[in-house]
């Protein structure tokens, strides 16, 4: 399912117009982005949680040349599946 399909599903299940459903979906994703930028954890009970994992800098290797390369520190978002979703998918 992509974003447009999510908007259509929301539109069909409610009495909202397509533009109203799109606005709700955009507000949801914008809120997630803002929380990630702040480094906050986002939890949706029964579905999943998102959190930011921080990595220190390290010395890596260019696989093509074998040359050592400095990798700067970084922060990446991670998804962790909730128990109810895991059980439902793995039935």
The count of helical stretches stands at 3
Domain unit count: 2
What gyration radius follows from the Cα positions, in whole Å? Answer: 19 Å
Strand order across the biggest sheet?
1-2-5
CATH fold type of the largest domain:
HU Protein, Chain A
- Number of beta-strand segments: 5
Walkthrough of the structure:
This protein has 91 residues and is α+β, with helices and mostly antiparallel strands. The protein has 2 domains: 1-38; 39-91, IHF-like DNA-binding proteins (HU Protein, Chain A), CATH 4.10.520. Helix content is 43%, strand content 30%. It has helices at residues 3-13, 18-38, 83-89, and strands at residues 42-44, 48-55, 58-61, 68-71, 74-81. The strands form 2 sheets. It has a 3-stranded antiparallel sheet. α1 packs across α2. The longest helix is centred in the first third of the chain and has 21 residues, at 18-38. The protein is elongated. The protein starts with a helix and ends with a helix.
Reconstruct the topology from this structure.
Layout: H1 3-13, H2 18-38, E1 42-44, E2 48-55, E3 58-61, E4 68-71, E5 74-81, H3 83-89
Antiparallel strand pairs: 1-2, 2-5, 3-4
Helix pairs in contact: 1-2
Brief characterization of the structure:
The protein is α+β, with helices and mostly antiparallel strands.
Task: Provide keyphrases for this structure.
91 residues, alpha+beta, HU Protein, Chain A, two-stranded antiparallel ribbon, 3 helices
């Amino acid at each position: 399912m992509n974003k447009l399909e999510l908007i259509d599903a929301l539109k069909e299940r409610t009495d909202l117009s397509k533009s109203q459903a799109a606005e709700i979906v955009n507000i949801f994703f914008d809120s997630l982005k803002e929380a990630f930028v702040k480094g906050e954890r986002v939890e949706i009970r029964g579905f999943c949680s998102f959190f930011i994992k921080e990595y220190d800098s390290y010395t890596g290797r260019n696989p093509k040349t074998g040359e050592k390369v400095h990798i700067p520190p970084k922060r990446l978002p991670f998804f962790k599946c909730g128990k109810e979703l895991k059980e439902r998918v793995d039935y």
